[in-house]
């Protein structure tokens, strides 16, 4: 088969799924994955360390 004649099809079309409307494109992570080992995640941004915390009320707090 000639590789130039291969037609690409989005995975959602192959699965019969309707694509979701996303407010802003980019990576989406579930909080369960972020906090699977505790209630604090450290994020490094431009040489600074930030902490994302999960509160007892299930809210998120980002501090420097």
Could you outline the blueprint of secondary structure elements for this entry?
Blueprint: H1 11-15, H2 31-34, E1 40-45, E2 48-54, E3 60-63
Antiparallel strand pairs: 1-2, 2-3
Main attributes of the structure:
64 residues; alpha+beta; 3 strands; globular
Strands side by side in the biggest sheet? 1-2-3
| Biggest sheet descriptor | 3 strands, antiparallel
Highest-level CATH class of the domain at 30-64: Mainly Beta
CATH topology of the domain at 30-64: Complement Module, domain 1
Helix content: 10-25%
Identify the CATH architecture of the domain at 30-64: Ribbon
CA-to-CA gap between the ends? 55 Å
CATH homologous superfamily of the domain at 30-64, by name? Complement Module, domain 1
Report the β-strand fraction as a percent range: 25-35%
Describe it.
This protein has helices at 11-15, 31-34, and strands at 40-45, 48-54, 60-63. The chain is α+β, with helices and mostly antiparallel strands and 64 residues long. The chain has a domain at 30-64: Complement Module, domain 1 (Ribbon), CATH 2.10.70. A 3-stranded antiparallel beta sheet has the order 1-2-3, with no helix packed on it. The protein is globular. The model has no long low-confidence stretch (mean pLDDT 78).
Quick overview of this protein structure:
With 64 residues, the chain is of the alpha+beta class. It has helices at 11-15, 31-34, and strands spanning 40-45, 48-54, 60-63.
